[in-house]
Design brief:
By secondary structure, this protein is mostly beta strands. 13% of the residues lie in helices and 34% in strands. A hairpin with a 5-residue loop joins strand 3 and strand 4.
């Protein structure tokens, strides 16, 4: 059975979801600037890149720093209450 969003809609690889919220000890443990970057993902749409063996969908965002010629990013797992399906892959 595929994972579901906050409304019980199925979530698969390729599904577009909007992040409603993020929470957990992992978030609290991030340094301030990194936490701010991750929290900026709330309200944005992402395509689910994978579903792990525990049934959690994963999404990714990158933040380029053109001035320094670098980029950093985060790949995060979402709980059902943290996302809503915007567009399904099927």
């Amino acid at each position: 059975m595929p994972p579901e969003d906050t409304n019980g809609c199925p979530v698969e690889v390729g599904t577009t979801v909007q992040i409603l919220s993020l929470s957990g000890q992992w978030l609290d443990d991030l340094p301030g600037e990194e936490r701010a970057d991750v929290l900026s993902m709330v309200g944005e749409d992402f395509t689910v890149e994978e579903i792990d063996k525990y049934g959690q969908p994963w999404v990714r965002k990158s933040w380029p720093d053109e001035a320094e010629g670098r980029c950093h990013g985060h790949l995060i797992a979402l709980e059902p209450y943290e996302m809503v399906v915007v567009q399904n892959s099927v």
